[in-house]
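Hi! If you just cloned this repository, the fastest way to understand the data is to look at a raw example. We've pasted two of them here, unedited. The first protein comes first, obviously.
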Amino acid sequence: MDPVTSVFTLLILLLTFVLVTLGSQAMRRQQRIRLSLRPIGAYQEMPTIIGEAVESERPIHVSFGGSGLGAEATVSALAVADLLYPLAERAAIASQTPIISLSDPTALGLAQGTLIRAYRRRDNMDAYTSTAARWYPNGGRSLALAAGVAGALADEDANLSVVAGRFGPEIAFIGEQATRYDQTFYGHSDQLDGQAVAWVMSRQPLIGEELYVAGAYLPAQPSATHLSQLLAMEGLRVVVLVALVLITIVAFAAEWIGLFLLVVGIAAGVLAVIFILNYLRQHRGRAT
């Protein structure tokens, strides 16, 4: 990473930290603040589908894909954990433990810890099983993960499949299996090719940054931290848009400043000549 990119990255991280900190403090002090969130179809439907899964005693499935901790996909792994917790908390009242799939070993502890926290919140640790989080062989295009998850969805008759994180085109295997067995499928990927497939196959697709705001949408009462993260994301969006506009203006000015000054100079010269001619004409008229 070159020095300029490093500096801008540090500035963005610092700005994000400041916005999250200030936002969370404001949310905690002003309990009456109510944010009006734009509707996201997938998050609106998920609680209802979880209820249907509990009533029919069918498990739900959530996949981290290739996301893991300590690498490029760390942010998406943490975002999937934020997505998993409210879903698992709703499903923890049933006897069927959710199915969690992943291909990065570092996400195994994250998935198990998130499930344990959800079951403790429901005071139903007797229904928790440590084998709910399942590891499949890793790889840039982990067909083993896609094939294993597709088989598990068929064998265990899952009611809901939420596939998010780092996926490529292999996400199509999971989506096709969910469609074949009449299972609700929601997909997201931080890779462009995987996102394109998820968009086509999902009942309600999740696009881009929508994965990272699950903690503000899915819980019945989102925490101040999650709401402040949402505000920070929107604030950074505004900053980026303003920066793009300013860069465009500066680039346009730098390219056309010479021509602009030439036109202004010619116009000023023409006006000056007209003014002088009018002055001389008026002065000659007075002299005669």
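Ok, and the second one:
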Amino acid sequence: MNAIEARGLCKRYGGTRAVDDLRFEVAQGEVFALLGVNGAGKSTAVRMLSGLTPPDAGDALLMGRSVARERAEVRRVVGLSPQESAVAPRLTTRENLELIAGLYGLPGSRAAEALEAFGLAEVAGRAAGKLSGGWQRRLSIAMALLPGPRVLFLDEPTLGLDVLARRALWDLIESLRGRVTVLLTTHYMEEAEALSDRVGILRAGRLTALGTAEELKARARAASFEDAFVALAATQEVE
């Protein structure tokens, strides 16, 4: 069973089709990057796949559960770290994790374990709103992973971070490979190439390319993955 199966997902906002007949599969334990320019439909796709927004047409299966018919079940198997900050700024790092543990009926010890597992112990007593962007993103991912999801969605996980904070989060994402299925969106081409097993490229809500970074470079006859993305993001449909 695949972790994710998108089956013709569509979503409209007014007269604009944000996602149009989206179809792809992600294997369990895979790191999959969904790329596209601003407005390509990445965040809309993530919201539908994670069960936050119902599709207007089509369906997707998350660990065999339908986002169209079983959204509550889908939310039990997925975690989401959104592009905007997901932390409660007035709560400490520890209290944010304890809040999530409580919401899921988990023992308080899970919060303490997460502090150690995600390298957050040194900022455990600091208000989350006072943390740097890198620490906040690390905390957001820890909160998303604390309930033990099978699939993790990361929407622009390193946006605005400095090089050191970005590399620290790369290491964290890399450590999940094979244990948790990860779907991430990013505007950093080197990030997608370094982290992902496969890449999907969206243009105007449609998938225009799908494959490994090397396969996409070969298809575009490009020397770099960034050049391949520029070429493939302008094409009309997936081959």
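That's it. A detail worth noticing about the second one: The chain has nine helices and ten strands.
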